[in-house]
Amino acid sequence: MPFLTITFPEIDPVAISIGPFAIRWYALAYICGIVIGWIYARALIRSEKSWGGPAPIAPVQLDDFILWVTLGIIIGGRTGYVLFYNPAFFLQNPAAVLKLWEGGMSFHGGFLGCVAAVMLFALKNNISILSLGDITTAVAPIGIFLGRLANFIKGELWGRPADASVPWAMVFPDGGPLPRHPSQLYEAGLEGILLFAVLAIMIRMGALKRPGLILGSFITIYALARITSEFFREPDPQLGFLWGGLTMGMLLSVPMIIAGTILIIMAWRRETPRQIEKSI
């Protein structure tokens, strides 16, 4: 049976170019993800119905937090990639750590950077760490979705070779002659659209009234989505497959499932504002 492949849409990696100034799709994805996420987060903060009262963080505090979380994403994402995915290369080429424009960001590292930013900012401003974590992770799928689309446009992080039963398989410019799964789009759908929709529905059902529930749900669902997509994604060439055919992305997602499940259980056992009012 012949392959019914789709031609890979070769898009210029530079989204905007004005003279020597150029913004790549990858950078634009980060910028748009942060801006759209900030707008959505402000809308969540204004909704007293979602919180069962005033939100535990003021809009002006959220504005200040944006810088913190942006630095957390960039520093954590780059550090995670260096440590988890290519330590030998960066040990020999330490100056390359700062060359962010050449690619190489780890979601798991970026997530840990966000956790650090949330904890430090919350402690400094006397804000609930769990509630701030809920807001941050409620908007995170927006950035993840745009980031995966940027991966696809750049033609990186492609999928494993596909068989003839996959009519949407593509031959990526740097992925060899074999048609492959467009795993970046799978991840955009699972880690971005699906995750955002589930969390949005939970918020409408009152999840923000239980601090940590959105945070725990995000961690758990993302990890499950990432493990699923890893079955279609080609592992990084410098690592390949690890024990039993597992990938680094799968292994790093396992502790997330454990941590997320614990947070969900703790949040579910915690009394909501309405329950507290009834007990009084």
From TrEMBL:
Coiled coil: none annotated. Pfam families: LGT. It is a multi-pass membrane protein. One of its GO terms (molecular function) is phosphatidylglycerol-prolipoprotein diacylglyceryl transferase activity. Pathway: Protein modification; lipoprotein biosynthesis (diacylglyceryl transfer). A 1,2-diacyl-sn-glycero-3-phospho-(1'-sn-glycerol) binds at residue 148. Its EC number is 2.5.1.145. Catalyzes the transfer of the diacylglyceryl group from phosphatidylglycerol to the sulfhydryl group of the N-terminal cysteine of a prolipoprotein, the first step in the formation of mature lipoproteins. Belongs to the Lgt family. This is Phosphatidylglycerol--prolipoprotein diacylglyceryl transferase. It comes from Bradyrhizobium archetypum.
